[in-house]
């Protein structure tokens, strides 16, 4: 075949009306060229931001960027290298091992001898094991590299304490609606065309981006590909075309724990609407409904307790209902339980009493109960005073003897202190009544 003749693959591209060298994706074409172009991270890059202050001194220490995908971690690292005139080197902990690290470190040492520094950007740094993370310490300490690690996981749990002690953690935030709109407007300006969306559909597209700038621009590109000439999509059409971007939610990572924490605190704060929202967020993301049912039972005993004794009954019933009905009908029972406990009177008195009693039990050792409440099945035990002086409460007019039941060496303790809320208001009255009788009989 003559070199001047088109190849079969080239003919296929031509037939499809495509150039052989396909254009770069929109997120790559619109990648910021200077730090001031980065949107959504003003707390880091604004006039008083942490990185702004570092750059004013022309010095840069090692950093860990922690935040969700698509928030600009890689871009900021690259632009930092430019701003500080450091050589930018990038590796991924997913694809790199010890041998790769050694090569990078050797190149950085050689570069330093020639008077040039290195900014080493490590994507997914939490994927490195402890030994690999430790290998960074010498080159960070002697200035061979300025390390910038990026992670979507909580550094407190995923990175070595030694590494964290030598780097500053900067938190990247999910892009809010204003930042996403800025990306849309920038894309429209660069491309010279408006997004073919009505106002409602545009707002839906912002929500679909889910705080991820890269995803936002990818969605913009998909919308432009799908639109015919002069076509304007409404919200329903947009959702049909793009389907729906799965929520960012890893059941083993921070998103999981953040949402269950938000659900629990919404229940504790007596906000049924917020509680239902977080419940549905997790169900929609594929969380195991039985896991949620178990957590709801825990909320009933920890935050409602005896202020409403029915809370535990209803939450257990919701778990059983899900077991019986399955998906999706059984999820309504869990939602009903969440509404019930969110609107129930709150008390952690039983929870706090249990913790206090457990602490005293652990600290007190093997103290013998008072002999008057011990059974005496043998003559020897009876001769030792077991059961001597015990009063049968039902034989008293009030059904209450007022005797002491704590070990003599410990003395009387108070663990349970019910508030004047819900059913515990009645329990408070009983306890006060029994305390008065006990004091009268012991005086």
Automatic annotation (TrEMBL):
All copies of domain AAA+ ATPase, residue ranges: 59-175
PANTHER family, per the entry: ATPASE WRNIP1, WERNER HELICASE-INTERACTING PROTEIN 1 FAMILY MEMBER
Biological processes per GO annotation: DNA synthesis involved in DNA repair; DNA-templated DNA replication
Lineage start: Bacteria, Pseudomonadati, Pseudomonadota, Alphaproteobacteria, Hyphomicrobiales
Domain of life: Bacteria
Similarity section: Belongs to the AAA ATPase family. RarA/MGS1/WRNIP1 subfamily.
Keyword Nucleotide-binding attributed: yes
Its biological purpose: DNA-dependent ATPase that plays important roles in cellular responses to stalled DNA replication processes.
GO MF assignments: ATP binding; ATP hydrolysis activity; DNA binding; enzyme activator activity; single-stranded DNA helicase activity
Organism: Tardiphaga robiniae
Entries under InterPro entries matching the protein: AAA+_ATPase, AAA_assoc_2, AAA_ATPase_RarA/MGS1/WRNIP1, ATPase_AAA_core, DNA_pol3_clamp-load_cplx_C, MgsA_C, P-loop_NTPase
Gene3D superfamilies: 1.20.272.10, DNA polymerase III clamp loader subunits, C-terminal domain, P-loop containing nucleotide triphosphate hydrolases
Protein name: Replication-associated recombination protein A
Protein's UniProt keywords contain Chaperone: no
Keywords carried by this UniProt record: ATP-binding, Nucleotide-binding
